[in-house]
Design brief:
The chain is of the alpha/beta class. The chain has three domains: 118 residues, Rossmann fold, CATH 3.40.50; 134 residues, Rossmann fold; 150 residues, Alpha-Beta Plaits (2-Layer Sandwich). It is 49% helix and 20% strand. It is built from 15 helices and 18 strands. It has a six-stranded mixed beta sheet, sandwiched between helices. It has a five-stranded parallel beta sheet with strand order 2-1-3-4-5, with helices on both faces. Strands 7-6-8-9-10 form a five-stranded parallel beta sheet, with helices on both faces. Strand 17, helix 15 and strand 18 form a beta-alpha-beta unit. The protein is flat, with a radius of gyration of 28 Å. The two termini are 47 Å apart.
């Protein structure tokens, strides 16, 4: 479990922070009311803290000494304070903190939670900074590392493209305009040939920027633009976070479009879109592929006797078992109420043996109901087609016919 240090002398805010963060982030919160207590927590935690949320003015450390202490331990710091004037703000940013948050009520706590969740996600996100100026590149790279991004650095467009080829999972490129060999416009256009706006964000940046340059960067495929003369740390972080969150939102929408809302497995749309590609790949490589149709026996009785909530629990339990038992190279999708379809690489005997094992596992699998610790047992029928047929739809139709045969012969069996 990740640990978060809270250094806050106000009992009201300290208790509120501890309760909120533990409830909404799952973190273990260590709350100190003085610098001395905070240092004791730091010494007692050899693995360190995922983040520190601190009051800049503690009774025994009125000048932000706690921020320096955590910085020495490489702990990302969020300053939580009721007073921030220009002088204090400048001192806060000099200490390379993640952000500062005003004590303004419930919305401030919500923002703290979102910052902590953002830091946790950033650890898995790659960002590239492209600038021929070592100093400017280092400034931006250091800022991004404070927010726990995985940072790659390139001195020009050619080096950036080479790094991108090595790390195709980069999510954000921050690129200067004036660079030797290839300027920011050309780099942006080249990146866009292989990485769409939905998969990778680009922020243009220039010391000679104006509205015309911003427009040209955007027309070349950039998502945003920053002028170096007006560079503010807060603005930089906001623009970077906004670009990353837009990508995450697009990814979430894409996932929702191909995911069954009840079980979390793929849906019918994904089966026909992705399954068609798997089918064609298997045919072209002469690799064996089997299609299995699985249906929960007498499912209507489950709903009639125990209610639709029990029916939903039954479907989710079967889906979970299928995910656990099927190989990663295969796919499973819920294509109807209680019906699932799976595409599994492998020969007939191998796949039949796998689904016999699954059928038996389901037959002894208790589905616990919420009332009185009661549980029910179910069975499934499975139809498997090991013949490729003319196309994927033909293969699915054959498997469906074998499923019908399994039900006709008495259910709780596999027919191939």
């Amino acid at each position: 479990m990740k640990k978060v240090l809270v250094a806050e002398d106000s009992g009201f805010f300290g208790r509120m922070l501890k309760k909120k963060l533990e409830a909404e982030t799952g973190a273990q919160v260590c709350w100190a009311q003085t610098m001395q207590e905070a240092c004791q927590f730091i010494e007692e935690q050899p693995d360190g803290f995922a983040a520190g949320i601190v009051n800049f003015h503690l009774p025994d450390a009125p000048g932000g000494e706690i921020v320096t202490k955590l910085g020495e331990r490489n702990v990302p710091v969020i300053v939580f304070t009721s007073v921030v004037n220009k002088q204090i703000r400048d001192r806060i940013w000099e200490k390379k903190v993640v952000d500062y948050v005003y004590k303004e009520g419930a919305q401030s706590l919500d923002y703290l939670v979102s910052l902590l969740n953002r830091l946790e996600r950033n650890r898995h996100i790659k960002v590239m900074v492209v600038d021929d100026s070592d100093m400017q590149r280092q400034v931006m790279a250091d800022l991004l590392r404070v927010h726990r991004y995985q940072v790659l650095e390139a001195a020009d467009g050619k080096e950036a493209l080479e790094l991108l080829a090595e790390h195709p999972d980069v999510k954000l490129v921050v690129s200067d305009f004036h660079m030797p060999h290839m300027d920011g416009f050309e780099l942006t256009q080249t990146i866009r040939k292989s990485h769409s706006r939905q998969d990778l964000a680009i922020i243009g940046i220039s010391a000679l920027g104006d509205n015309v340059m911003a427009a040209r960067f955007l027309k070349c495929g950039a998502n945003d633009f920053i002028i170096k003369q007006h560079f503010l740390t807060e603005e930089f972080y906001c623009r970077v976070s906004q670009s990353i969150e837009n990508l995450e939102n697009i990814q979430a929408i894409r996932k929702a479009a191909v995911t069954d809302f009840l079980t979390g497995v793929s849906n019918r749309r994904f089966l026909f879109d992705h399954g068609e590609r798997i089918y064609n790949q298997m045919r072209s490589s002469c690799t064996s592929l089997c299609c299995a149709m699985l249906d929960i026996d007498h499912f209507k009785k489950v709903n009639d006797n125990y209610g639709h909530q029990a029916g939903d629990m039954t479907i989710k339990r079967v889906a979970k078992l299928l995910q656990e038992q099927l190989p990663e190279s295969g796919i499973v999708a819920r294509i109807g109420g209680e019906e699932f379809c799976a595409l599994v690489p492998g020969g007939k005997d191998e796949v039949v043996a796998l689904f016999e094992h699954i059928r038996k596992a389901i037959s002894i699998l208790p589905v616990s109901l919420s009332s009185d610790n009661e549980s029910i047992h179910i069975t499934v029928s499975v139809g498997i087609s090991s013949e490729p047929g003319r196309n994927l739809l033909d293969m699915l139709s054959r498997a469906d016919a074998y499923l019908y045969q399994a039900k006709k012969e008495g259910r709780d069996r596999v027919v191939c």
